[in-house]
Design goal:
Keywords: Cytoplasm, Transferase
Strand content: 5-15%
Main location: cytoplasm
Order of helices and strands: EHEHEEHHHHHHHH
GO biological process, one term: glutathione metabolic process
Helix content: 55-70%
Organism: Triticum aestivum
Shape: globular
Largest sheet: 4 strands, mixed
Number of domains: 2
Mean pLDDT: 90
Protein name: Glutathione S-transferase
């Protein structure tokens, strides 16, 4: 049951997905208990197809029998639906909230997209191009960190906020990518603010409870990822 409500909360997900990890992070930070239901994305269940008939992807949050889709939307929903418990994730100021949403979209469209394509790349030329795009996007994101954090500990200020959760879902994949390709896209020499943020975020008790095992992610890339759509 969810803290502060009598309505059941379920999460349809895939263990390796950074997008599913976002939702788990938000639920954990808010103190909302839930039932997790692993989906086989090579043989999608009727439950998933019924809950997300448009995109047919995870994550899907089901609250009181009603499905909510897309990780960014779900995290915002969790913040609003469980406003009475746990920390507030989205900024109260409308402009700061808009800025956080802007950078969240940037992370998905400009950072995670080429990053994911890099892990799927089958030729040196493809890997070089997707690496170039990811590095360029991280450079821009580094400046976004400077703007959003205002030199505080997290994007949300002194406490974890919406953008921390959205970006935080990819932290285990930073370490996995380094093992797979040798690239550390959040290296301190190239992105010092992001690197420092990642170290702080990874040490939080809440993140340790959610993050995937890095070696398992590396194995996943080698045996499962190629040719398979993960999630969004």
């Amino acid at each position: 049951m969810a803290v502060g409500t009598g309505e059941q909360v379920k999460l349809l997900g895939a263990w390796a997905s950074p997008y599913v990890a976002r939702v788990k992070l938000a639920l954990h930070l808010k103190g909302v208990s839930y039932e997790y239901m692993e989906e086989d994305l090579t043989n999608k269940s009727e439950r998933l197809l019924r809950s997300n008939p448009v995109n047919k992807k995870v994550p899907v949050l089901i609250h009181g029998g009603k499905p909510i889709c897309e990780s960014q939307v779900i995290v915002q929903y969790i913040d609003e639906a469980f406003a009475s418990v746990g920390p507030t994730l989205l900024p109260a100021d409308p402009h700061e909230r808009a800025v956080a949403r802007f950078w969240a979209t940037y992370v998905d469209d400009k950072v995670l997209l080429p990053w994911g394509m890099l892990l799927r790349a089958k030729t040196d030329e493809e890997r070089a191009e997707w690496t170039r795009q990811t590095l360029a996007a991280v450079d821009v994101l580094e400046e976004g960190v400077r703007e959003c954090s205002k030199r505080k500990v997290f994007f949300g200020g002194d406490d974890v906020g919406y953008l921390d959760v959205l970006l935080g879902g990819m932290v285990p994949w930073v370490y996995a990518t380094k093992k797979i390709s040798g690239h550390n896209f959040l290296d301190a020499s190239k992105a010092p603010l992001l690197a420092a943020w990642m170290e702080r975020f990874a040490e939080l008790d809440g993140t340790k409870a959610v993050f995937q095992d890095v070696d398992s992610l590396v194995e996943y890339v080698g045996t499962v990822l190629y040719g398979t759509t993960v999630s969004n």
